[in-house]
Amino acid sequence: MGITSAIVLFAVIWFMVFFVVLPLRMTTQGEAGEVVPGTHASAPSDAQIGRKARITTFWAIGLWIVIAGVIISGAITVRDLDWFHRMSTPEVSLPE
Predict the structure, then answer these.
(1) Could you say which of 16, 17, 36, 43 is the most buried, measured as most Cβ atoms within 10 Å of its Cβ?
(2) 64-77 pLDDT, tens digit each
């Protein structure tokens, strides 16, 4: 895995975790009883984006270490996910 693919993998994991963490413990303006004029009652009253970004980074680093480790070790390859046998078998050169 190159440095670029490692960074892209981390970015994808980070955003996926971020979208999972965003709605957790969210208090809407309707629940808080302070609806700002011009907004929906379901809008967050205090989004706590910084706190959620820190939580996301913590979990994304852990997941990235596990996933990158599996990719680098070769425990699971793309050919393991070829359920319909559409990939050709790799040619192996034998040592002479």
Answers:
(1) 17
(2) 999 999 999 988 88
